[in-house]
Design a protein that fits this description.
InterPro entries: K/Na/Ca-exchanger (IPR004481), NaCa_Exmemb (IPR004837), NCX_ion-bd_dom_sf (IPR044880). With 320 residues, the chain is mainly alpha-helical. It contains 13 helices and four strands.
Amino acid sequence: MSFLILIIGFALLIKGADIFVEGASSIAKRFNVPPMLIGLTIVAMGTSAPEAAVSISSSLAGQNDMSIANVVGSNFFNILIVLGVSAIIAKLPVEKNTIKKDTPFLVFISALLIIFGFNFKISRFDGLVLLLLFVFFLVNMIKSNLGQQNSDMSAGESAIAIEAVEATESEVSSLPKTIVICLIGIVGIVWGGDLVVDSATKIATAFGMSSNLVGLTIVAMGTSLPEFVTSVIAVRKGETEIAIGNVIGSNIFNILLVLGLAALIHPMTISMFALIDTIFMTLITALLYIFMKKNNCLNKVHGFIFIAIYVAYMAYTIIR
């Protein structure tokens, strides 16, 4: 029964985020907000909503290990599986801004998370620092992209926003209706997050699994489904640059926004296993940067290496 509830929770999370993005994009379009700005804010936050809902719910429920593991697990799942599979399907060229700015910044904040975790907790002050860095990143990203409206979209998910906006142009809903749609989406996200946390906790208890392991595997994979589907579909359509931008952007949002909010709401303790996983996430992010810097792309070899690393680390987490 817990597995069924878990699946229902994932469905509510993903559908809720999708409905929220659709409604919010419609409202933004009505008030003449540029499509690119919609992608950099509403859509990017919407795809991180599942991680946010699960991590905040876990933090409030006292399941700190699951809260951290969800973000950390989602991040290295995004790199190793999402980018790994995408690179096997097609060669992924990397933009200069991604190599020079976005990926180094992701490495930096991943390392910063390790520093915060050395005392085995993330305090409200740490959460505030993460949120301030999020604001800094968002402002700079918006300025950079608005200054190059005809250039490639470094945030990746902006392209998805444009499609969402174009879809609403032919079917403009009334403002009250779009507000209701947004509220329904938020309810789905929050309710789905609660169901995932509760059911995952019961599964962990029933099978003698730790909350950290459940968060790293089942929960992290479930909340990363939007990124996985988006990237694979984008690559199959030839929009290969979206795959990398989608992952880098989502990982930055997960660390700064999701963990920042979770820690600000309720300080989180970190276990030794969670700290080890955070170090692994940082090393994987650094490896991604090295591959990008050296080759200006991700290819099949990189993809197979990423998947092999993921399988090996999952085996380690199960037996440790």
